[in-house]
Amino acid sequence: MRTSLNIALIVLSLLLVVLVLLHRGKGGGLSSLFGGGVQSSLSGSSVVEKNLDRLTIFVGIIWTVCIIGVTLSIKLGS
């Protein structure tokens, strides 16, 4: 059980990094420091961006559940 949780945690961690990096910078943060603050003419939220947000939140929740599962399996000693 712990091995499968660890594998899922590694896969979800990599997927979460990729999903966060796919997000467009909103400006005002570190992205504007490196030239990412250029505003585009398409400033509205598209369906793709909303789906990307939903997918990122979903993967983040599953990632958190895996973290809790690994912690409980370590504490219970199984």
Quickly list its features.
3 helices; mainly alpha; 0% strand; elongated; 78 residues
Explain what you see.
Helix content is 71%, strand content 0%. The protein contains three helices and no strands. By secondary structure, the protein is mainly α. It has helices spanning 2-22, 30-33, 47-76. The mean pLDDT is 81. The longest helix is centred in the C-terminal third of the chain and has 30 residues, at 47-76.
The overall average pLDDT, rounded, is 81
How many β strands by DSSP? Answer: 0
* Helix/strand/pairing category: mainly alpha
Cα shape: elongated
Order of helices and strands: HHH
Summarize the structure.
The chain is built from 3 helices and no strands. By secondary structure, it is an all-alpha fold.
Write the layout of secondary structure elements.
Elements: H1 2-22, H2 30-33, H3 47-76
Helix pairs in contact: 1-3
